[in-house]
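Rotation project, supervised by the postdoc (A.L.). Task for the rotation student: set up a whole-complex structure prediction and record inputs and outputs verbatim in this book. Inputs entered:
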Amino acid sequence: MCGIVGLYLKSETLSDDLGRLTALMLHEMRGRGPDSAGFAVYGSPESGSKLVLLSETDAVNWTEIGHRLEAAQGAAIDISPIANHAVLRTEGDGQAARDWLIAHAPEVTVLSVGQSIELFKGIGDPDLVAERFGLAGRSGTHAIAHTRMATESAVTTAGSHPFSTGADTCLVHNGSLSNHNGLRRRLENSGERFQTENDSEVAAGYLAARMRSGDTLSEAVKAALKDLDGFYTFAIGTAEGFAVVRDPIACKPAVMAETDDWVAMSSEFRAIAKLPGVEHARIWEPKPSQIYSWSRSA
Amino acid sequence: MSVETLSNTALDLSTLSVREINRTLHAAETGAFTLLHPNGAHALACGLNAPIDVSIQGHAGYYCAGMNKAATVTIDGTAGTGLAENIMSGTVRVTGDASQSAGASGHGGLVVIEGDASARCGISMKGVDIVVGGSVGHMSAFMAQSGILAVLGDAGEALGDSIYEAHIYVRGTVAGLGADCIEKEMRAEHVAELRALLDRAGYPDIEPASFRRYGSARSLYHFNVDNVGTY
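Outputs recorded:
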């Protein structure tokens, strides 16, 4: 069991409340996933790339890592630590920075890369994780969050959701995949880099790889329905959009709601019950194998 | 202990816990109660054991009105997974949609879902009657043993998979029948049975002859016609 929440704002009126509302939703899903939690918030795109990094060792020297990356990339780096994470901004190529960090800074896990996404995660009470990384004070266009009850791999910060392997793409998962080892090998052979043993990271990597080779989010998810074996409800974020999909037998719960101002999804209605205007929302249960997506560009 | 209730008692979930509310409902032998601000809370009005009347004003979470006996529970909103699971008697009605496994393993009573029910509606039903005003999701009436599932809309994939002796009536289309479930002739006794059920469920204008009947081919289990009276 895990808990998922996603909130996509259709207008700018609530953008300053995005983090606060997401934190309220996450709070309601604590019981479904007390092991760990995480969230991704999408803000206005920045000109350069930003990476969110995690280090589980106290000995990490963020400044030194910044200098080394600066030297390797020949581009200016700004790095600001927050708890055991750091947000790194570069005018250089974000994806190349990610690859360099994975290869040369083994004490660091790259949680996200992109122009809009910031992603934070931690072990323990989801409320404390949200507080540690200031979720309630964050603004933006859409957010995805997760509370985890681990089944397929250990309870570690790196193994917490959301997972992101491609630029501005992230995924949260309730369920378990049974063919993730084979799929991970296949994706690694075609150049994908993974940082954990977690099954959900493979799903994130799969979608990112499809989209890198030209798929739209909907096309990538449609392919995933064929290639991923197991139980899943996914909420997926991209720079412009948000999508929800459930496995063909709908093993894991999901409920969605939409008003003129927002689209929300959650594992249970009680998370959605906290949102403003919910009394006038259209509420429905997403059907199995059907892709529900919203996008600013479409 | 008994609570004398002459008029409608309001119980507000914004000030009372689910346990406090269920304790009050369990203590009542008669009366009417209105539950306010449910906000998707789980296990509301579970294990009721007396002919009381409970109205839930808003959306209910999982297992609402589970194990219901004798009581009448109405949800003015939607219901989460496991609505009226293991219902023994009484009536549970939801004005909106119900999530998965509505009426699961119910032994008796009536469940009315005015909107849609999602997957596995009536799974392992053992005598409960379920009427769905909208459509049902996949694997509804899975391993259903006894009782009636009537669907005014459509049914999803694998309807009645591994069914025993329950009766299924569907007015719309059926995406697919499960293992050992077949379409059967709609005879006069079935029209009469469905007429009576639709009347009980509050659908007097729906014509039973517009439904098709589905049931067990009886090839997956050892059915002996001599025992038909016991099902």
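Student's summary: The longest helix of chain B spans residues 188-201.
Supervisor addendum: The mean pLDDT of chain B is 95.
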